Amino acid sequence: MNDIEGLCEPRFEAVRETLADLLGKDDVGASAAVCVDGELVVDIWGGCADADRSVGWERDTLACVNSTTKNMTALCALILADRGLLDLSAPIATYWPEFAAAGKERALVRHALSHTAGVPDLSGPTAVEDLYDWTSVTAGLAAQAPEWEPGTAAGYHALTFGFLVGEIVRRVTGRSLGEFFAEEVARPLGADFHIGLTAEHDHRVAPLIPPPSLTDEYASSAPLGPDGRRRERTGAAIRVRDVNSVAWRRAQLPAVNGFGNARSVAVVQSVLANRGSAGGVRLLSARGCEPAWEEVFRGDDRVLRTPMSWTTGFGKFGNTFGWGGWGGSLVVNDPDSRMTVAYVMNRMIDREQRTDDRGMEIVMAAYSGVR
Q: For residue 326, what are the domain limits?
């Protein structure tokens, strides 16, 4: 089932060819999409939605994109800031008073979005099931001490990013991050992306498939440092079987459990690459998009163990910004070209064993269409 279906403008034929090539090698099922000037120019998919290769990947197939969800969560905060409801330079405690505890009174909203808030790990939860209790997790996060003075260093906030930004959004709007996203982003854009998936969509989900030779016990972990050692992390280790569970789908973990496909990821993120609008729908002003690509931190990331540039909500790479998810999903925004490229798949690659360049292959193929 390696036939590629969907829309692909002729000048982006390289994207179709690249996806077909990936499906002939590492991928089981996947989708790719490109938006230029806020309009879809590529929306393609192929392969299978299950490990047995018995169910085809369809136009409306959904997959958990893991940390690619962070791009959606950051957009929600930027929309609120653009509306004057959230000050990115204000202390988090302005909106969430309890967060001032244990030396975090000077932690700013911008710090929460740029992985510089000093709370990269959750000190309390030890099981994935604990993450589903939003009130308990956020109360614990507010009470714990930072690992560093907020704003002075960066360390990838893999799970805490979603609880930090999500609780700020909840305090400002009275709505959960998933509800705000559904009502203020997905619905206006007609985007099939969900943070907190309801049962009616279960039949469309392509389960995450662990890397070859590994089982669904395969878990996320901190990367190895230059010294070959792994940074100690507290909290729950998330396994493939957790991501594939019904409980995971129903929960709202705004850092990691968004469900969508390349089309929905690209359409939503193209708002930022296209100065605030997509498909004729304006979500924020052109000026309101600028924090997405303006650098907040540059230096060694204490968790990722690599040099990083962080903006208000995104990783910055040259003139582009975006982020990817555990297993391989990716979105890249290029405001200069007004282009957004997204890739969503179901088969993972173990990045400790080999490099996963699949998403970047799609991105580079897309650039051949705008040169």
A: 5-367
